Amino acid sequence: MPEPLDLSTLNPDQLDAVVHRGGPLLVIAGAGSGKTRVLTHRIAHLIDEGVPPTSILAITFTNKAAGEMKHRVGELVGGVVKAMWVCTFHSACVRILRQHAEVLGYPRTFSIYDQSDAQRLAGYVVRDLGLDAKRFPPRAAHGQISLWKNQGFNAEGAEAQAATPEELSLARIMARYEERLTAYQSVDFDDLIGLPLKLLQHHADVREKWQAQLAHVLVDEYQDTNHLQAATLRLLTPTGRGLTVVGDDAQSIYSFRAASIRNILDFPSQYPNTTVIKLG
């Protein structure tokens, strides 16, 4: 059984972030400012205040970080941490997608292609289309497909904005790649963000279910989110009530996944009632 939650070791800014109530909260936190401490204590404080653990979603960007956060939250709240979602963005989206896969024409048992599977499939498509594998190596072809998906383009959109013959060929590769994935009842890593967003955008019953279930959503490293991830959060928490994002507006390490520093810079304008706390 964990000890009663002790907030006395927090500095004033950390304490303000931990006990914040109501509207959206943006915590600006650089290295060494205690951001993980704030996130874990905020989760524990919410549970102390009577928030059901099953209605809390805490998102990190790596499995290692998720495991560490879950361990640290468990030290504060005990076994109830097992009822919470403490996971990566992709893991959270997989959970949503599996529950509603049939709505998009997929079985709940759909397969997920990892990076090597996806690159291998791109290579098969290049071969099947009779394209030069030296000009369109599988890794590079898949890299462009991945970038387009993270920017919100499907194959038709990629073709429409293609500016060179090479880009037109890559859009053709993407179209055939998507056909093959669908035929295999599979998705790739990038679909794990795009497809749940599509679900929430176009199916009000699904959107309302998750809005009702998730009373609090907490996101670490918010500066590393891309446009699709930020859009997903806006659909899950349209007013921002119960939404806490933590990040460093001076850095972004996942730009290769179309991460946008604008998400953290524009957060207060996207959620007009935002409280901003800067950790020293």
End-to-end distance, in Å?
32 Å
Question: How is the largest sheet built, in terms of strand order?
Answer: 3-2-6-7-1-8
Low-confidence stretches: none
The total beta strand count reads 8
Q: Cα-atom Rg, whole angstroms?
A: 20 Å
Classification by helices and strands = alpha/beta
Overall spatial form: elongated
The secondary-structure element order is HEHEHEHEHHHHEHHEHEHHE
Overall mean pLDDT stands at: 93
Largest sheet entry: 6 strands, parallel
**What is the number of helices?**
13
Helicity range:
40-55%
Fraction of residues in β-strands: 5-15%
How is this structure best summarized?
Helix content is 51%, strand content 11%. The protein is of the alpha/beta class and 280 residues long.
What labels describe this entry?
280 residues; alpha/beta; elongated
Task: Report on the architecture of this protein.
This protein is an alpha/beta fold and 280 residues long. The protein contains 13 helices and eight strands. It has a six-stranded parallel beta sheet with strand order 3-2-6-7-1-8.
